[in-house]
Amino acid sequence: MKSIIQIAASLAFFAAALQAHAAEGDAAKGKDLAYTCTGCHGIPGYKNAYPQYNVPKIGGQNQAYLVAALTAYRAGERSHPTMAAQAQGYTEQDILDIAAYLSSVNEGAAK
């Protein structure tokens, strides 16, 4: 059995690798790609297209988390029909760019 230290070290390495990988995104390109996100996640002055459905805040979210979530939706590992359909159209670079942009946004700017 692996020791707790070995498991923690593996997780830390994986997290660092994800963050380094996510750092390759282009926030300027991601801003254009993330425009469609505002329909559900919203921005000030916009309303959620489905007000009865509570969507998570994504503006200011951790970049590595956004990459992991979008990648999982694209791979079918996370279940949400709209998000899965949206993510299917993204390349790996698109996901990196979107995550770079959204992680740089003030938390109140995109919900």
Would you write up a description of this structure?
- By secondary structure, the protein is mostly helical.
- The protein has a single domain, classed as Cytochrome Bc1 Complex, Chain D, domain 2, CATH 1.10.760.
- It contains six helices and no strands.
- It has helices spanning about 5-20, 25-35, 40, 65-75, 80-90, 90-105.
- Helix 1 (about 5-20) packs across helix 4 and helix 4 (about 65-75) packs across helix 5.
- It is globular, with a radius of gyration of 15 Å.
- The termini are far apart.
- The model has no long low-confidence stretch (mean pLDDT about 80).
Task: List the defining traits of the structure above.
6 helices; single chain; Cytochrome Bc1 Complex, Chain D, domain 2; mainly alpha; 111 residues
Topology record:
Elements (H helix, E strand, L loop, with lengths): L3 H19 L4 H7 L4 H4 L21 H13 L5 H8 L3 H13 L7
Helix pairs in contact: 1-4, 2-6, 4-5, 4-6
